[in-house]
What we know:
mainly alpha, P1 Nuclease, three-stranded mixed beta sheet, two-stranded parallel sheet
Amino acid sequence: MVRLAYHSSMSFIKIKLAVLSVLWAWIALPSFAWGPDGHRVAGAIAQAYLTEEAKAGIKDLLGEETLAEAGLWADDIRQDPAYDFAKPLHYVNVPRDAQRVNVKEVCDSGQCVLGAIEKYEKQLRDQTLPREQRIEALKFLIHFIEDVHQPLHVSFADDRGGNSIPVTLFGEADWNLHSVWDTGLIRQKIRGGNGDWNALAESIRKDLNDRQLKKLRAVKNPVAWANESLDITHSLYPHLPKDGNIDGAYYAKYMPTVEDRLAAAGVRLAMVLNDVFAGKAKPGTTSQPALN
Length: 292
């Protein structure tokens, strides 16, 4: 009886340790720009500004899958070793004292979100490429254009884009500065509304006027989008609560910024896709100015 109890106890401990190791591995994973709701919101905004040509071209590649759904794929595959190459493509790190993104210094090999946007737009345009490759290119492009608009994905390596800065969110532990911007503030907004990410997307879109749309569309270079994010990132650190408690005051101050960035991501994503699918795309061309 003692031996049976011992083995039973040991089995329970092993199971418990296994579960804890899985949970720890999940918690330890680096955050990716915008949580699922953020990507859905940006994708839904973009969907509303697509031309008929773009809608047809996207449908030819994705079928009935929407931009809101397709934008999640690049995060869904992060557990697949075959896509390990894509892990550094979600962000770009700059020196802490950098006021602008110097692409030659921080992304010379193209292994950052800016290089990824350029690469996958070219692939999407190239109709000589296999269909499956262009489908992947479209999904990557959707995701990375949205990613570069999340401020902490244009940030600093020394704290992993805020991942190493622990905070509490409305009294909840186990958050960090990065995850608050990925997910936490958007979650709070949705909870305070009707609990629907699509309603948040529609609300943001309805608040955009023609002047704002023109202003967003006038900025076509992804490096400029990254510099916008970097400016915001720099502004966040001096205002981080000393006790690490993200509360209602922080939410009220920064949720409008989150909404502005989601709006910019959606409008600019549509702008790029409308251009890609306008007429016949030429192999290897891009609408974006050269990164350097």
